[in-house]
Specification:
8 strands, 33% strand, 15% helix, Embryo-specific_ATS3, Lipoxygenase-1, single chain, PLAT/LH2_dom_sf, alpha+beta, signal, 4-stranded antiparallel sheet
């Protein structure tokens, strides 16, 4: 009987160790990658009814997770599906580096129309869509957004995006 206790203890340690290793492997690859190692995201953008009827502003986006994985969209306004028309919701498909749950988003606006988003939702292969309520005029020539990540650094703009 005394010889059985160390064997059961070792078996328990092995089972727990392998189950935790499997969880780590699963969480390190949150999305299926394409051949270039990128993942797909859906951006649902609702332009405020207080925005100009249609904008010619240049709009850039950066969003990411708490691990530093960031997707940068240099010119959202150049997507054919993104007319950024007042009182309309538009869905834009983008690809970029794979991330875990999105927790920050920043927008850069350059132009004189004064585009005003109401809200933006980012969906991907992570548990919950990331919802960002803006309903404000994005300052001209400045990054503006939100960081809901639980990190110790307080970055006020995207780390690798430049406009």
């Amino acid at each position: 009987m005394k010889a059985l206790i160390p064997i059961l203890t070792l078996l328990f340690i092995l089972v727990v160790g392998f189950s935790q290793a499997e969880d780590t492997l699963t969480s390190s690859q949150p999305q299926e990658k394409d051949l270039n190692g990128n993942c797909s995201y859906s951006l649902s953008i609702y332009t405020s009814c207080y925005s100009p009827r249609r904008t010619r502003d240049h709009i850039s986006l950066a969003f990411g997770d708490k691990y530093g994985h960031q997707v940068y969209v240099p010119r959202l306004d150049e997507f054919p599906s993104a007319t950024l028309t007042r009182c309309e919701r538009e869905v834009v498909q983008v690809t970029g580096p794979c991330t875990s749950q999105i927790c920050y988003m920043y927008i850069y606006r350059s132009g004189c129309d004064g585009w005003k988003p109401h809200d933006i939702t980012v969906s991907g292969n992570f548990p919950e869509p990331a919802y960002f309520f803006l309903h404000t005029l994005i300052p001209n020539h400045a990054w503006y957004g939100f960081n809901y990540c639980n990190t110790t650094s307080s970055s006020s703009s995207p780390s690798s995006a430049s406009a």
